[in-house]
Amino acid sequence: MKRNAVSKSLVLLALFAVGLTSALGAQTLLGSGATFPAPAYTKMFDEYYKLTGVRVNYQGIGSSGGLKNVQDRVVDFGGTDSFIKDGDFSKYPGAVVHIPTVIGAIVVTYNLPGNPKLRFTSDVVANIYLGKITRWNDKAIADLNPNVKLPSLAIMPVYRSDGSGTTFNFTAYLSAVSAEWKSKVGNANSVSWPVGQGAAQNAGVAGVVKQTQGTIGYVELAYANQNSMPVATIKNSSGNWIDPSLASTSAAAAGAFPADTRIVLVNPDAREGYPISSLTWLVVYREQNYGNRSREQAEQLAKLLWWMIHDGQQYVTALDYATLPPPAVKAAEAIVKSITYNGQALVK
Amino acid sequence: MNDRRFNVLLSFAALVIVFIFAGFLFTLVVQSLPAAKQEGAAFLYGSEWNPVTTRFGALPFIIGTLMTSAIALVIAIPLSLSAGIVMGEYVNSGWIRSVLNTLINVLASIPSVVFGLWGIEVVIPLVRKLALLVGAPPYGAGILSASLVLAIMIIPYMSSMTREALVNVPAGLREGAFALGLTKQEVVTGIALPFAKKSIFAGILLSLGRALGETMAVTMLIGNATRIPKSLFSLGNTLASVIASQFNEAASEVHRSAMMGLALILLVITMIAGWFGRTLMSKGMGAYGK
Lengths: 348, 290
Description:
By secondary structure, chain A is α/β, with parallel strands linked by helices. Helices cover 39% and strands 19% of the residues of chain A. Chain A has helices at residues 2-27, 38-52, 63-71, 122-129, 139-144, 165-177, 179-184, 201-211, 221-226, 246-252, 295-309, 326-337; strands at residues 28-33, 55-60, 77-80, 96-110, 119-120, 156-160, 197-199, 215-220, 233-235, 241-242, 277-285, 340-341, 344-345.
C-alpha cells in the first residue's frame, strides 16, 4: 500500500517534470551574459512577455560567462559588451553572429568642491589614469577650464575592480587615444592600473566618487544620472566638445557600420558622437538546428531578436541607454535574416 | 543496528570527508597547472599581475593577505582577551553577562557583506581623516580599513573562545588558590590564564583562519589595487579579494588558471598557519604551570 503511494507520487513528479520542460521548451528563451545591458533587457523582455506570452530569462553573469555558455550551447543567446575576436571564433562549435541591441556611454565623473562642469581632452583623461597628471590644478586641466577655480587637491582615480565590459570599453578608448596607454597598460576586461583605487561594479565606483573629494571615476551614464553626479565634457576626434547624452551616444554609431556589426565605438569619426560610447551585442548561432532544438524555439528566438532591434528600442531610453541609429538597425536586420534552421531563413 | 554496521557507516562518512578534501585539492592543483607552467616559481614571488599581458605573480596578494590578517590579530588580541576575561572571570552571573553574551553572538553572526557596508560608511571616512592628518593619500579604503574591520569581525570568536576556556578552569583550582590567600587578580593571571592558554591560543588560530580567508568585507574595503602595499594607508588586494573581483570575468584560460593558483596558495597558507599553531601549542606552551 505504502509502496504504491510512493510509486504513484513518483509518476506524478515525472509527469510534472515533463510538463515543465516542454513548457520551457516552447515558451521560454534562455540567455546570459553582460550585466551592463541587463536592466534594458529585463525591461524589454517584460514588455515582450506581455505582448507575446513568451518568457525570456536573462541572467546577468558577465560577458565572459555569457560567451562561455554560448560555447557550451546551454543558452539560446549570450550577451556581451566586447565582440568576439577573430582568433576566438574557433572556440565555438558553429558559426556565431552578433546582433547589436543598445548603446551605452561611459562618462568621466568626479568629486570636487562645488562640482564645477569640467572639460577634458582624451590626453588629459589618459594622463590622469597613467598617473602623469596628479593634481586637480595641473596646468593641463586648468588650460582647458579657464573659468573654473581648480583646487590644489590630489587626483585619486577610481576604477572597476571586477572584470567588466565597462572597463574593456574605457581602456579601449584610452588605448585608441594614447599610444603610451596602449603600450603600457592595454585593453581588457581587467587591466593592471598604474594608479588609483578599485571598487566593485558601477555602483561601487559611483559610491567611492560620491564619498571622496578629489576622486575621478568612470561609470555608465545611467549611474551618473541616477546619482546626479557631475560628468565631464570630452573633446572627440573631430575636435568637438561633446556632452555625454543619449543623443550624442546614438550619434557615435551613426557613421559607417560594418556588415558583421563588430565595431569598436570608442573614439568614433562621427562629428557629433560622444567618444566613449560602447555597443553591446547578443550572440547566437547562425544555424539554429543544433542539440535538440526545435524549429519552433529557433523561430521564437529570431522573432525576439527582430523585435528587440525594432519595437523593443522604445523601452530603453527611459533607462539611459541609447537606441541603435538607422545604419546599425539595417546591419542588424540583415544578420537576423541570415539566421537559419536547417538552412532556411527564420525571418524574411 | 549492530556494532559492525554502525562502524562501517561512521567510517564511510569519515571517508567522504577525506575524498571531498582530496578532490578539492586535486581540482585546484590541476586547474592551476597552466598558470604554474607559464610562470614557474615566479608565480609565487612575481609582483606583476597583468591580465592584458597575461603575466601573473601572486606576491602583492600574498603580502596583502598576511599584512591584513597580522594587523587584525594585533588589534583584536588585546581587546578579545580582555573581553573574554571580563566575561569569564568578573561578570559571573546576572543580566550583564547574558547581555554581553548575546552581543558577542550577534556580532559573530553578522554577514560579512554587512560589515563591508558598515566599513564603507563608517571606517573609511574615519581612516580618510586619519590619512589626511598624517599626510598619506586620503583614499580611506586600503590595508588599515580592511584590517580594522577584520579585527572587529574576529573579536567575537576570539573572545568567546577565551571566555569558554576560562569558564572550564576547574573550580577546585580557583578555590584552592583563594584558600591560599591569592587575590582575584593573582588567580586570573597566575592560575586561570595559564591553565586556559592552550584553548585561548586555539581561539586565536581559528580567528586567524577566518581573517586569512575573509572575502566580502575585505574586497569592499581594501581598495583593490594589484600593487604591493607599502604602508597602512596603501591600497591592496588579498588572495581572496582578487579572486572575488576577477574570477567572473577572467577572459583568458591562463588568467582563470592563475585564480585557481591563488586559491591553492590561500589554502596552503591557511594550512601552514594551522600547523604552525598546533606545533607551537604542543612544544612551546606545554602543560599548565610552566
